Amino acid sequence: MLQARLTIDPARTVGPVSRRLFGAFVEHMGRGVYGGIHEPGHPRADGNGFRRDVIELVTELGVTTVRYPGGNFVSGYRWEDGVGPREERPVRLNLAWHSTETNEIGLHEFASWLDEVGAELMLAVNLGTRGTLEALDLLEYANVPSGTTLSDRRRRNGRPEPFGVRMWCLGNEMDGPWQLGQRSADDYGKLAARTAKAMRQLDPDLELVVCGSSAASMPTFGEWERVVLGHAYDDVDYISCHAYYEEKDGDLGSFLASATDMDRFIEAVVATADHVKAVRRSPRTINLSFDEWNVWYLSRVPADLPRRIDDWPLAPPLSEEPYTVADGVVVGSLLMSLLRHADRVTSASLAQLVNVIAPIAAEPGGPAWRKPTFFPFATTSRLARGVALEVDVDGPGYDTAAHGRVPVVDAAATADDGTAALFLVNRAQAEEVEVSVDLAALGTDVLDEALTLADPDPYAANTAGQQDRVRLRPNPRAAVVDGTLRVTLPPVSWTALSLRSARTDRPSTTGQQQDHAPATTPATETRSRTWQQ
Q1: Which of the ends of the chain has fewer CB neighbours closer than 10 A, N or C?
Q2: Cβ contacts of 369 within 8 Å, gap of 6 or more
Q3: Helix, strand, or coil (residue 384)
Q4: How far apart are CA 455 and CA 182, in angstroms?
């Protein structure tokens, strides 16, 4: 069996864990909105047409913020289309995803849905086909209490109180050739700076996100960030990062190490932002909003989209990834990368939420269920509290075609007032790893939970007919003995451990689904392979 030893010192902190790290993203794409969160006539639909089964799963997922309404969609979106009486709203063409947009769901409806799931709204403005004036109009409509034409229009439309949106994205992926209104870094940087200045004249306390390059693989990457921040640095709070990962050409080893790429991506953007800070001699520090990240098999997208001018379907199924155990393990490790950079990544959005590259599937007229990517997100959102800690891993490595040599064991940890959480990934495809951690410095000596996502088949998935094939299971091979935590990790697995001091009250597991993520306090170690059962 492979062996790895972790060193964790609570004095070596990364930074506080922002609750906004556990955000998500909803775009008017495929069946994400229509047929996902909203399906009038469904047996579980409420009076507003929202599926209650989906609301329950989103609440369980632990989502804290949701970026809306895009994404590529926002660059062709007229926000006015989605407010006012539904019967008067125009039907438009969704050029981003070659479909029909009825505008049945807009700002009011989506905000009311967020009230149900208890999440904060993060709005994106259209800087693709529109500009500063339209962004100001939306801000006035959303946030001014009353007394102006647009704020009073909001009140007449059924929302007396302002939406109070604090976080705003200045466009989306503006360097992408697929984006309506694609611009050069210089042109976009000037527009973003003008728009940010104008929005702050209306509300100086906003938190504004400027677009970074749409991917680290783009030829614009790096120089785009430098030029854009050269214009907008003093006017914004965040620069965005977007990254999607997929297994390519059967290279599971490289795929499982995707977090290595995310680590490097984050560190490159931080270095560029700090370079601009130094050149400008600015006292301000720009943080990162990783507001699109996930596993997404982008290589499949062109085959999904219709292309004819007379074919604009309503909510066609797009990118409804089945997701496997391996995908769930990678999502868990990407979350660990975000935690490792909690000092600078203070907002993030899993893209997306329902049906479209989502942790939740919702069958038309039928059930909703958790995909394998659901479990690491929900558990990390629940357990990661306080501050992120540096973790040193002493263990074996392996060579990958995409990332060079990487460690077999990936790790992240958080600590909060007598409690701690440890997140582990075993990237080995055939071998178990025994991990040991000396807990003396942490002061935690009780193991409350040890939960593992694994399956003998790394490509196992959940379906409507078999919704619980893949789920979290108690890991019986985890225990604290004489101040040392020992846990055995199955191949291709993600594990979460919750620890506390014997002097600390057991933390609440409110919202935890006991049949999917039961708490366990193993008393002894066993060498059985019950994680497969």
Answers
A1: C
A2: 57, 360, 361, 462, 464, 467
A3: coil
A4: 43
Longest dimension (CA), the chain: 70
Return the sign of the alpha-carbon dihedral for residues 44, 47, 52, 55: positive
How far is CA 58 from each of CA 163, 166, 381, rounded to the nearest angstrom?
A: 21, 22, 12
Instruction: Give the pTM.
Output: 0.93
Cα-trace Rg, the chain: 23
Contact 532, 456 (CB under 8 A): yes
Residue numbers annotated as active site: 173, 292
The tokens describing 62, both together, are 């632990």
- The predicted pLDDT at position 301 comes to 81
First-to-last alpha carbon distance for the chain, in angstroms, is 21
Question: Amino acid letter at 312?
Answer: W
> Which is nearest to 462 in space by CA: 373, 349, 350?
373
Alpha-carbon distance of 228 to 280, in angstroms, equals 13
Task: Report the DSSP pairing between strands 484-489 and 493-500.
Answer: unpaired
Cis peptide before 352 (omega within 30 of 0): yes
Instruction: Report helix, strand or coil for 440.
Output: coil
Tell me if the bond preceding 69 is cis, omega within 30° of 0: yes
Q: Of 285, 281, 279, 187, whose CA–CA distance to 236 is shortest?
A: 285
Q: Whole-angstrom Cα distance, residue 112 to residue 394? A: 48
The partner residues of 240 in beta bridges, in order of sequence, read 289
Among 229, 241, 247, smallest CA distance to 291 is for: 241
Residue with tokens 């003998």: 456
Domains of the chain: 2-12+386-532 (2.60.40.1180), 18-383 (3.20.20.80)
Contacts of 488 (CB under 8 A, 6+ apart): 1, 432, 433, 434, 435, 475, 477, 478, 525
Query: Token match 């990661």: residue?
Result: 384
Q: Give pLDDT < 50 ranges for the chain.
A: 508-533
Dihedral over Cα of 270, 275, 276, 282: its sign: positive
Q: Which candidate, 314, 322, 361, places its Cα nearest to that of 53?
A: 361
CA-based nearest residue to 372, from 328, 423, 322, 427: 328
